[in-house]
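--- STAGE predict ---
source: upstream dedup step, 1 unique chain passed
mode: sequence only
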Amino acid sequence: MTEPKNQLTESVRLIRWRMAHERFRFADEFRIIPRWIKGSAIALFVVGQVVAQLVHFFAPKAEPLLPAMGVAVAIALAADLFLLFFGYINRDAERRGMNSTLWTLLAILVPYLIGAIIYFLVREPLLYPCPGCRASVSARFNFCPKCKFNLHPACPQCHHPVKGEDIYCPYCARQLAGVTS
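--- STAGE serialize ---
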């Protein structure tokens, strides 16, 4: 009975760690999208506008230009947003050490954006450098695989997570000399 509770507390601890260490700025996240996808999105938008004007010019019974351009803008923007969104998923999965092709295909092929929602729910935390040896490690690791640095120190008595600079455990008051590597 305590096994599922321990798994739940570990999951909550991981989520809290993610929230504390991952900082997202739109500009930084937008930068990971490949330039060719950004260029394709711009070209797609321009092509949509040109097509709307050509349809207006060559149509025998021409509708007013403004509604045609509005429809072309809406369709082009929707296509651009999907293109940029799936490009972001591909690069984000790659930088998190996940199978980028698989997750991109899943996000594209599962209808109603359910695949994209699943990706954002189960994606791995960002890799970060080990404080001991600067090797890339996952937030899920407790110890660095290169230098055995304790990435998530815990109190040896009550097993609650503690900070590396703590001298005493804030939960049971045990002295923590030697807890960090």
